[in-house]
Amino acid sequence: MSTPEPAADPTTLFRLDGRTAVVTGASAGLGDRFARVLHAAGATVVASARRADRLDALAAELGPRLVAVAADVSVEAERVALVERAAEVGGGSIDVLVNNAGITEIGPAERDPFERFEEVVAVNLSAPYRLSQLAFDALRASGHGSIVNIASMLGLVGSTPLKQASYCASKGGVVNLTRELGAQWGRKGVRVNAIAPGWFPSEMTNDMWGDDASERYVELRTPLGRPGRPEELDGALLFLASDASTFVIGQTLPVDGGWTIV
């Protein structure tokens, strides 16, 4: 069998020109970065979060291909409205859904309020599942729909001595949900994969930076000896969102400086 010639410019596989992408939790941190990266790759980005003022500022900065939709992903009516608006922007289809919105709770499990556990699971696990359900038809209609769930390395390993049982449970659920949806939907034209970031600067990890003990902990436990830089997630995101990964389904890609290999 002859080997096909490579594309004249293989980097075009990573382009998203003419496509519509949805990013939840896009008002700050990693979500803001994800929205910018997809926009830079050519996509029209529907950026969603609860803080409308930050989304409006992002839209003003990036221009008409950034559509701001304020929504709380734990509220069903707002999830429905977000997906409907994204499909409208995409002319009836959605190409990429990035389930990024997330929260955490830190404290020993024996004293963790159960109501807070339920809230963390609702935002981190139930909301991505429901948004994926709601967006399925529009993703399938695109002919190359891709869901990128933002899991965590703490969905693959425990977090203690930093105690956050609800976060670990929810992100572990995202990892296996990604496998199952990938298996169910691959033949239906919707790919589902996930990224598992390690320690990156974000609103969720703000308390760790500037604290000597926390920074030493990250440096000593990470084989690369440092936390990640925001741009070090760009390649993984573009790979999974684009046609560069058309034969990849159900996978969780750790981007963690080696945290989960030791």
Structure description:
This protein has one domain: Rossmann fold (3-Layer(aba) Sandwich). The chain is an alpha/beta fold and 262 residues long. It is 40% helix and 14% strand. The mean pLDDT is 95. Helix 3 runs parallel beside helix 4 and helix 4 (114-142) runs parallel beside helix 5.
Largest sheet report = 7 strands, parallel
End-to-end distance = 41 Å
CATH H-level superfamily title: NAD(P)-binding Rossmann-like Domain
Number of domains: 1
Percent strand: 5-15%
The CATH architecture comes to 3-Layer(aba) Sandwich
Quaternary organization: single chain
Name of the CATH first level: Alpha Beta
Note the main attributes of this structure.
262 residues, alpha/beta, Rossmann fold, seven-stranded parallel beta sheet, 7 helices, 14% strand, globular
Task: Sum this structure up briefly.
With 262 residues, the chain is of the alpha/beta class.
Topology:
Blueprint (H helix, E strand, L loop, with lengths): L19 E4 L5 H12 L3 E6 L2 H11 L3 E5 L5 H14 L6 E4 L14 H29 L2 E6 L14 H21 L4 E8 L14 H10 L12 H8 L10 E4 L7
Parallel strand pairs: 1-2, 1-4, 2-3, 4-5, 5-6, 6-7
